[in-house]
Amino acid sequence: MASLSAMASMSFDEMQRAMERDSLTLGSSRERVEVPRRAAARDLERVEVSRRAAARDLARVEVSRRAAARDSARVEVSRRAAARDLARVEVSRRAAARDLERVEVSRRAAARDLEQRASSAFAQMLRRHENSRATRHASSLRTRVLSEPLEDPITREILEPGTRAVVLPCNHTFSRGGITQWLERKRTCPVCRASV
């Protein structure tokens, strides 16, 4: 992401291009999260195929046991082994499902984090844009050189004679720093609330 100080010096079009680049970066981050999720899904599919194959093997063993009653002891041993294999496959399937769930939770958390960071960056960019507009607006106001001391109503500092002060259209006078800070928050005169 572009740094905030760099964003402050950009034009609005440059900021839009930076946001589009950041959007592409966010997309690649999502892809990095999506790859492990797909791999876990493929593993789960392989485990499911193995589970089905083991289930088919178990069915064949059962048919053999019925057909070969005299070898029932050997068939029973084979059936039990297949059941153990099926249980192991089921344990593996459940573990793969848990892994897939963890990957999905991580993917969602990463997506939320990326969305929050993008929103925060956009909000900061807008605030900086508004602040720069307020500063430009304050610098375009009429100024005068004071002939007598004056207390700034915003900062409460005493402006000495000979100091250059900002005069609003309503003729109220302020220090440049004080009125600039005020105009970053509100577009009215701090004294009479007239629109500036």
TrEMBL record:
Domain RING-type: 159-193
Gene3D superfamilies cross-referenced by the UniProt entry: Zinc/RING finger domain, C3HC4 (zinc finger) (3.30.40.10)
InterPro entries registered for this protein in UniProt: E3_ubiquitin-ligase_domain, Znf_RING, Znf_RING/FYVE/PHD
Any matching Pfam family: zf-RING_2
Biological processes annotated in GO: ubiquitin-dependent protein catabolic process
Domain of life: Eukaryota
GO molecular function: ubiquitin protein ligase activity
A single Gene Ontology CC term: cytoplasm
Membrane-traversing stretches: none
This protein's name: RING-type domain-containing protein
Species the sequence originates in: Chrysophaeum taylorii
Native organism taxonomy: Eukaryota, Sar, Stramenopiles, Ochrophyta, Pelagophyceae
